[in-house]
Every structure is written in structure tokens, then in C-alpha cells.
Amino acid sequence: MRFDAVLFDCDGVLVDSEPITNGVLRQMLNEAGWALSQAECERIFIGKAVRDERARIEAETGRPLTEEWMRAFYARRDERLRAELRVMDGALEAVRAAHRHTSGRIACASGADKAKVVMQIEMAGMRPYFEDRIFSGHDQPRSKPHPDVYLAAAAHVRTDPARCLVIEDTATGVRAGLSAGATVWGYCPAGHGRAFEGLAVERVFRHMDELALALGRR
């Protein structure tokens, strides 16, 4: 098993940020008049950019989704992340293994805003491995589930997407990786991969140690 490049999602793959981000989002939507349970908020928003659900947010709250509201969300989210962010167990070793396996051709391709992704990768101690190879769907014509961010990452590391391994934890991200033409492995630390049912995920794994071992951890 040999891949020329490994492309990682960030939230829910490298760092355990989704409960924090989703919790802040739910609180702010509740304050705006949309009463959501945590489970409902996760089902609607995990794997997506908040702006992707603009029409629904505006319909449920009766208010426009303004840039001021988004700035307030980012500020509250980042404050919580700085205080509470945790690295996924084994993720740093998996990144190191991927870096060795590909002679440095790894990248992070996230649906989140780039400032958040960079902050999290730095907090996780992974920036020396990714360097400038950090990509956001916000900077592409289309975000996930479209393939644009993975195609951009593959192009940057000068690798045919068909020779890339994508690591994802959501159906939205898996669709993006598959649409790019990559091999996709589904990371599912707290379940059995049901989120990937019906999708052509080549492998489902529950701990980052499995990824490190598969890529030849030394």
C-alpha cells in the first residue's frame, strides 16, 4: 500500500473541535430565536460551513445572516477553542507517519475558514509538518461536498488525485474526496462507520494508530 500524498480534513480528524464549535453555534442560534437541540445542530451543521446553511438560518431566525453576526461567532468560537481544544488521540503520530510515507507531500484540506484551521494546527503542534499546505473551502469556488479544496491541495503537492489518500470523518467530506478522485478512508472514533454507508470508502478506522501503522510507522 503506497500513496503519493495524504490529504487530511481538520475538524474531527486532527483535532476534537466539532463539539466546541457546534456548541457555540447552537448557543448563538438559540439566542437568535432558533431553538435547536445539540443533536439537531450537529446533524445540520457538522461537515459544512455555517454560510452553506444561510437560507435555513435566516428562515428559522427571521433575521439576515450578517457579517457582524459571523464575526461574533468566529470570536466566541475561537475563544472557546483556545481554551478547550484537544488533539485527537494519535493524530500527531499519524501526521508524522504520513509525512514520512509521502516524503512530505501532506496537506490539510478543510471546509472551515483558514484562520481557524491554521490556529488549530499550530495548537496541535502539527505546523512543522504541514507548513503552508493548509487549504480552506472558503477560498475555493465551492466548498465540500464539492471536490475543489481537495483538488487544490493535490495540485499544490503536485500529485494526481488518484494517487492521494484522503482522511475524512463526515459524509460531506467523503463525498468531496471521492469527487476529487482520491482514495478515501473514513475515521470514526466513536461509532461503526454508519455515517459512510452507501459511500465508496475504502476503509473505516477507529483510532489514529491504525492510520500510522498502515502508513508504516517506524
Order of helices and strands: EHHHHHEHHEHEHEEH
Shape: globular
Helix content: 40-55%
Poorly predicted runs? none
**Which structural category do the helix and sheet elements fall into?**
alpha/beta
Describe the 3D structure.
The protein has 218 residues and is of the alpha/beta class. 45% of the residues lie in helices and 11% in strands. The chain has ten helices and six strands. It has a six-stranded parallel β-sheet with strand order 3-2-1-4-5-6, with helices on both faces. It is globular, with a radius of gyration of 17 Å. The two termini are 16 Å apart. The relative contact order is 0.18.
Give the key terms.
6-stranded parallel sheet; 10 helices; alpha/beta; 45% helix; 218 residues
